[in-house]
Amino acid sequence: MIRVLDARFVTTAVEPAGYPDGKNPEVAFAGRSNVGKSSMINALAGRKKLVRVSNTPGRTRTLNFFDVDLEVKGGRRTFRLCDLPGYGFARASKADRRDWQEMIAGYVEKRFPLRLVVSIIDAEVGPSEDDAQLLGYLTGHGKKVLVVATKIDRIPKAKRKPRLHELARMLQLPTKHVLPFSAVEKLGVDDTWRTLADLMG
Question: What's the pLDDT score for residue 62?
Answer without folding.
Answer: 87
